[in-house]
Amino acid sequence: MHLQLVSTIVALAQLASCAPFLEGRDTCTTNDLNFPSGGMHGYNGIYWGFLPDDVAGTTMSHINGDSGKKASTYGRYSQISSVPYTGDQLTSVMSDVVASGAVFIPAIMPTGLKFADISTDVANQIATVLEKFTSQGVEVWLRFAHEVNYYVTQASGPSGPRYPGGTQAEFIAAWQRVHAAVASNPKILMFWSPNEDSVANLNGWWPGADYVDIVGMDVYPNPGATFASAYGAFYDGFAQQYNKHFCVGETGAANGGSVADKEAWVAQLAKSDVSAYPCYKSATWFEFYKGVDFRIVEGQSATTVTETLSNFA
């Protein structure tokens, strides 16, 4: 019994010792998120990037070529459907990621494992995959189990894979194991990115300030939304409350939206005055066609692309 207690104390101490490793880079008053030199940014100073449509085979090279810009962030999805986790959906675009120079934002989704199954071994497998990118100089922001509050409530079906899930406590423990696995890599930041909800409802999914470097919330707003109406309460409740960077991990117009809807939302994020939100640093657009067209560059008319680019310096 005594030896078991000692072992438990040592294990907890080792986990806790990882928490402050990146202390300083996680505070919103710092400017060391390592955005690429010459990276795309709005007239309001917010850095901008895209989630390329992997189903259509779109690369960031395509988007950069068609926009004449250099995306600052590069999003990508990857499911943990079984173990060992090898991250093939990420490594398959490694050359495009490296060539883009963008901050890489992988959303690693536990679709085949419950939170309790994200063991130290699985966490280390995630870290090993991401190290393949950081060893080539890529900055990585890990959106582990993004939109967790949404995916655990959905049944699997034709709309896509869901999380087998578990309790909020099991999610937090899984998050902290992943954090411990990547904590020694200074080029990886942990990006907590739930789906749109109230601060009160999201508090139960909060992993703890010592384990989160960047906060954001996935919102696809209806027409007429402003930055304040979409993100203001979340920003106050997490970014401002804990002095964390606020970044938009993914967004677009509700249900794809009309061209006018999309362009109005882009302007809110990249051109409107956001000086009241100093922790807001970047946004990543969902550049997908999924039965409806979320895109603002690929497959768009020259007039639409010109209007999109009018928001960027």
Automatic annotation (TrEMBL):
Keyword Transferase: no
Superkingdom in the source lineage: Eukaryota
Alphabetical UniProt keywords: Glycosidase, Hydrolase, Signal
Alphabetized PROSITE patterns for the sequence: GH26
Secretion signal, residue range per the UniProt entry: 1-18
Molecular function per GO: mannan endo-1,4-beta-mannosidase activity
Catalytic machinery residues: E147 (proton donor), E250 (nucleophile)
One GO-annotated biological process of the protein: substituted mannan metabolic process
Annotated GH26 domain residues: 1-313
Family of the protein in this entry: Belongs to the glycosyl hydrolase 26 family.
Descriptive protein name: GH26 domain-containing protein
Biological source species: Letharia lupina
